[in-house]
Amino acid sequence: MSEHIEEQKVPVQEQDCSKGKIAALVALALALLILVGGLRLLLPFFEPICWAIILALFFYPLYERLKDLLYGSPALASFVMCILIVTFIIIPVFALITSLTTEVLKVYASSVTHIQSGDFTLLPDAEKFPMLHKLGVQTLKAFKFYGADIRTTLMEVASNLGEFFLKQGTIVFKNVAAIIFKAALMVVILFYLFTDGVDMLFSFKKLLPLRTSTVDRFMKLTSDVLSATLYGNILTGAIQAGLGIFIFWLLNFSAPLLWGIILGLGTFIPMIGTAIVWAPASLYLFLSGAYLEGAILLAFSLLVISQIDYFLRPYLISGKTELHNLFLFLGIIGGINVFGLLGLILGPMVIALCMSILELYRLNLREREESWKKDLLI
Q: Residue 359's pLDDT is what?
C-alpha cells in the first residue's frame, strides 16, 4: 500500500515542476513584453537622451568641482551646470549651425554663378603652370573625363547639392518646434543625470549578471576608453576646428566657418588628418600668387594645428586606453550613416564599448590560462 502511494507522489511532483517552469516562462515573457513596451515609449526621445548622456559624461568632472564649491548641493550644482551648458554650448551650437548653413548656401550660389559665367576652368593655366596643366589633362584622361562637357556635369552636381541642402533646410524649418522641445527635454534629462547619475549607474551595475569585480573592471575599461575618445579625440578635433576657422578668417577665405569645421573633422581621417584641408588651401594660395598668405597658412598649419595631435592629445588622454584611429574613423563614418549628426560622437562611443568588452574578454581569458597553469603545477 505504501509503495502505491509513493508511486503516485512522483507524478504530482513532476506536474508541479512543469507548472513552475511554465509559470516562470510566462513571467519572463511578460517581463520582456513590458520591457519592450517601455523601450518603445522611450524610442522617440532617443536623440535627446543620448545627447544628455554624452554631455553628462563630458562635463561630470566640472560638475563635481562645482558641487564642492556650492557646499555639496547636487541640485544647485546641477542647475548651474545646465544654465552654463545652455548658455555656452546649446545656444552657440544653434548659432553655429545657422551660420554654417548660410555659408554652405553662399558657397553653392557662388559656385553656380562662377560655372555659369563661363570663366570657370578646371585646369590650371597652360602658360603659367605648364606642368600642372599637363598633370591635370593626364588625370582627366585617366578618369575618361577629358573632352566631356565639364561645365554641364558640374552644373548637374551643383544642382543636386543645392536641392539636397534646400531639402535639409526645409526639414529643419518645419521641425523648429520639435528641435526646441528636444533641446528642452535634453536639459531636463541632463539635470537628473548630474544629480542621480551615480545612483543610476550603481543600479545598472547590480542588474548585470556578472561578478562585482568583473563589472568594476568593465566599467573602468569603458570609462578609460570613453574618456580617451571624448577628451583626447573629439576635444582635440574641436580645438583644431577653432584654429582652422581663425586662420581662414584671418586670411580672408570665403566660408571660413565651413572650411574650419571640415578641417576639424579631418583630424579623424587616418594618415591624412587635417592636411586634407590646409594642404590644398596652401597650394591654392601659392598657385594664385598669394605667396605671403600661403606661407602663413602653411607655417600655422604645420607649427600649430598639426602639433596639437602630438602635444595636446597625449596630455588629454594621459595614459588611458585609446581607441585606434582606424576604428575611430570607421566609428564616425558608420555612426553618421546610422544616427546622423549624433553619430559623430555616438559612433566612436559604441566602438569604444565594443573594444571594452573585447578587452574584458581578453583579460578574463588570460586569468583562466594562468589559473590552469597553476593547477597543472600543483
A: 76
Residue type, 303: L
Question: Phi and psi at residue 153, in whole multiples of 5°?
Answer: -65, -45
- Render pLDDT for 126-165 as a digit per residue (tens, 0 to 9): 676 676 667 766 776 665 555 555 556 656 666 666 666 6
Instruction: Return the C-alpha cell found at 238.
Output: 574641436
In angstroms, the CA 194 to CA 186 distance is 12
- Cβ neighbours around 211 below 10 Å, total: 9
Give dist(CA 120, CA 140) in Å, integer.
16
CB atoms within 10 A of CB 182: 18
The pTM score is 0.73
Please, what is the Cα angle at 148 between 147 and 151, to 5 degrees? 120
CA 164 to CA 157: how far, in whole Å? 11
Instruction: Provide the pLDDT for residue 143.
Output: 59
* CA distance linking residue 376 with residue 237, whole number of Å: 51
pLDDT-derived band of residue 348, with 50, 70 and 90 as boundaries? confident
In this structure, is the dihedral angle defined by the CA atoms of residues 145, 149, 153 and 158, taken in order, positive or negative? positive
Largest CA distance in the chain: 117
Distance CA 36, CA 23 (A): 20
HSE-up of 151 (CA within 13 Å, CB side)? 10
